[in-house]
Amino acid sequence: METRVLLPEGEAPATIKEVVLALQAQKLSVRHDKKNWGDWLVFEAAETVVSIESNRGLTSSATIEEAEGEEDLSLAIVAAFRKLGWEGEDEDGRYPL
């Protein structure tokens, strides 16, 4: 399952470091894995990842790619983005996390 998260319209982009710190505040062991094809937030001993769109270390959108059986991890990830003030988005539009 995928969950798309975004900063509210008009908000200044966040740094990837801010996002990582918010995830760590949720007691998650996470690392930023930068590849030539994109930026990923990878969690220790988990298959769930966050594909985070960035431009020179700044971000305003990401996709949580949830692995089966890792719902608790996904809830903690969503909680971190909620604390940062981000929103979710689905086919019906944006919604509060």
Written description of the protein model:
By secondary structure, the chain is α+β, with helices and mostly antiparallel strands. Helices cover 24% and strands 43% of the residues. The protein has helices spanning 16-25, 71-83; strands at 2-6, 14-15, 30-35, 38-43, 49-55, 58-65, 87-90, 93-96. A hairpin with a 2-residue loop joins strand 5 and strand 6 (58-65). Helix 1 (16-25) crosses helix 2.
Number of E strands: 8
Shape: globular
| Alpha-beta content class | alpha+beta
The termini sit apart by 16 Å
* Percent strand: 35-45%
Please compute the radius of gyration using only Cα atoms: 12 Å
Average pLDDT for all residues: 95
Q: Can you write the helix and strand succession as a string?
A: EEHEEEEHEE
List the helices and strands and how they pair.
Blueprint lengths: L1 E5 L7 E2 H10 L4 E6 L2 E6 L5 E7 L2 E8 L5 H13 L3 E4 L2 E4 L1
Helix pairs in contact: 1-2
Structure in a nutshell:
The chain has about 100 residues and is α+β, with helices and mostly antiparallel strands.
Labels describing this entry:
43% strand; alpha+beta; 97 residues
